[in-house]
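Record 1 of the preview.
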Amino acid sequence: MTRRFMAKMWSAFFLSVLLVSTLNFYAVVREPDRVEIDEIHEHLSETVKIEGTLISWVRDPYSDGSDRVDLQVEDIPHVVKIRWYDTSEVPPIGSTIVVEGEVVQYNGKIWLNAKGMGAISEKPGAEVVMIETSLNDISADAESYRSEVVSLSGYLSDAIEPDVTWQSFTLIDNPSYQDSDHRLSVSLQGRVTEWIEAGSRVELTGWVQWDERNYRWSIVVQSSTLDVTHEAGAKRLSWAVAAETWSYDIGKLVYVEGTYNWADGGHWLVAPGGENVGIICLVPNLELLENGTLPEDGYSGRLIWSEDRAQICLQMSDEDHTVNPVGILIGDFTTLATIAANPSDWSGEEVNVAGWTTGAISPDYDKGYIGDGKDYFERSTTLRFQIAGAHAEWIELGTYIEFYNVTVVWNEAEGRIILDVPLYAVGTIDVPPSMFSWTEGWEAWTWQVNTLVSVNGELNQTSNGDLWLVASGTGQRICLFDDGTAMTTGFDEGGNSTGVQVWTGRLLAMDASGNPGVQLCLAL
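->
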């Protein structure tokens, strides 16, 4: 009986070992998931496979001697950039290729990191679609195409305006100008009847010429030979980037999220986080101007330069436009706990993070802490951050804030992780001002210094004109910096105190006048 039982136990043991080994083998040899090019932003930091047509490539793009090839792979009208670290021969332009690599994000741009000989291969049995002429061919030997008539396909860098006899733009190999590897100047002669938006895919025929004035190669195209194969939608603009970068999008159809505001006799579009994040002027459409109808999701229209206002404005459109994902800061937020769990793995990496400030940050100070909860009881992780450059206003305690393109830095002197922040967007203040208690004492009050607090007190003015808030029935007091409202609300017309009120402002620690030590003041 015992021998039979032991035999069954050994059989079960060997079966479990075989099962575990099989699962481990499957995990090692399992093929990466195949994804569509327009869906790769959903697979950040994952190894995936994509398939598409090779439309452009350049070896050693920065001429630094690296074994790197940058490729553009298209699944019309979507294009993905590949960085291939290998010295193998590149498949021919127009071939269908399969790429395996890790989805990587940097500065809001996404590409695939492909490494090794087998990372890129031609799809077996796929017919090579011969491209009559490509941007690759002209860039490799432009002189041989001088005065030749060629046909090209690519994407528009700028919008083409209707009913204009002559205009110029750049033909690029990626819908995003920053992601493109090849760029050819185009001189368009003749009128088009409708707007052709930036990012649209076009096919055109023209004469290759050397532009002596601008010292570059260009192609002269008649409007009748330009065909739009895929129209682009509105480009989504992000408030997280510097406002001056929007000047590159003047003339383009854009989409902007924000809140409508009427002020100073004009129409304005305010960023979701408030005016401290961003604001631009708005040229309303008929629905807003005559009917007062505001869009529900966001504002679409053409970005223009207003000569009257000497600033960039959004000229609203009466049509609903699809939104082109090009230009979005794409990617999920990395949790603070993930970074804190393995700081050595994240050192030098770029991430997007979000959370709540654990203290107020003055305009003359660039450091603070961000936590993954609104208050002490909700948060589990807190990290130090440093903002690159100045910020004009206070960032209050408990402010929801988003950091973009953050570099995780290991500070050896302090022995901790620091988030180096180039871009940020400020949201709502989710923590109300705390109540100042006259009985707590100095140790408790130090935690409230530089934050917004509410104080129950009676306004008092000394003979020399100084203002103080006094605790009712005691001799305790803190000085008051008036913004102009205290004198009208704290005293009646006869100059008598109106009694105890709730005063809300910033608690400051000041050098005591004429005495050693520190005194507390409230700045309204």
